[in-house]
Amino acid sequence: MARPPRLILSLTTRLTLSLVFGTTLLWISAASYATYTSYHELDEAFDGALQEAAQRLLPLAEHEANEALGNEHADSRPMRRFHGSRREYLSFQVRNAAGDILLRAHDAPSAPYDQVATPGFSTVGNYRLFTDTDETTGLTITVAETTKGRWEAVLGGARGMLWPLLGLIPLNVLAIWLAVRGAMKPVKRLSGDIASRGGHNLAPLDISDQPGELRPIAEAVAKLVERLRAALDAERAFAANSAHELRTPIAGALAQTQRLIAELSESKDRRRAREVETTLKRLSTLSEKLMQVSRADAGIGFADQPVDLTPVLDLVVSECVKRLDDPGRIRYAKPDGVTLVAAMDMDAFAMAARNVIDNALAHGAAEGPVDVKIEADGVVRVINNGPLVAAETLAKLKQRFARGDTRHVGSGLGLAIVDTVMTQAGGKCELFSPAPGREDGFEARLTMKGSAGLSAPTGAAI
Length: 462
Known about the structure:
The chain is α+β, with helices and mostly antiparallel strands. It has 9 helices and 12 strands. It has 3 domains: 11-166, Beta-Lactamase (2-Layer Sandwich); 186-298, Helix Hairpins, CATH 1.10.287; 300-453, Heat Shock Protein 90. The protein is rod-shaped.
């Protein structure tokens, strides 16, 4: 069972997410620490306020109790209560030595906050208490504050810190993304430069502005590209020189063989001589193909200016017709007024057209017709009525030295040369079997880049 493809995030996305999560976590940690510190500081401040309130209220409560109850019977008089119209921040109770409540705030409970008055600070239920006793009069005051008020103050401060942080997160994401994107520009530029290098582009890499972290990588890749370019140049030069040097001796040997065939009288000897002739012709063809491969690898396909390639195709078709015993095999269809205008080298196009026509002649049915058509959208179609080609074989025919299931002797380089020069010119070479609209046959379709929108400059000619 095939595994589902994994989601691979880009380096920019990874850095952005990591920095956003990291900074957000640090902000939350800092806010949490600030809230914790604020809670303890507020707790101390509120405790101080409780103690100060108790110390100030106790003398006033003693005076009020003495006036209301009298000094001699303070513990037996009914309790007097302070009245008010709103809930106060603090509440209090004043008790005598027996624990009876003499005075209390209007919102204080009628029962004691705590059964045992413990001097100092304490927490009972939802109240924070401070209890103080006057040793002279024996009166005890307990000042109370609800813990809810303290928590509301702490949470209010926390909200005041967290809400601005939540608003800053999108700005933080944008700032980090812009910073990471700017920092990743050298990486993207280096990646693009490396991706643009190939068999037809081995220009030196520009590493002058690479940062220190990327410079070793860029230098290593630049050296590798340079070594690869030198190796490919040497290979191309060797192939071109070898093919060029072999042409003359092969042509001489072929001429001598043909002369020998004419002079021999024995059929057995003539048959062997013709086998030698066939082999020499194969070597001659292979030498020619190797020369074309070297030219194609040199990048001859592209031209600076658009040219009309129709006369080139006319010339190629006429040359192919002259080489045939039956000139009628090639059926050339060129509608009136249709031109092939493209920014493509004329020699490269002639080489591509000759290869697809030769391929159609060689692999079509014996003495079968080959249709060469120019269409209005800048497409050249070359069709024969040969046998069907399997889809897996068809996909490999544009590779070098790839051959289909055929008895014809060839090099397996023709369609690879066509694909190379067409790609260099921005066009494409497409292969179909069966030919569209038919049940058999093979079609090679050459599509020029932007043929419909280009016009050849005045005076352009072969």
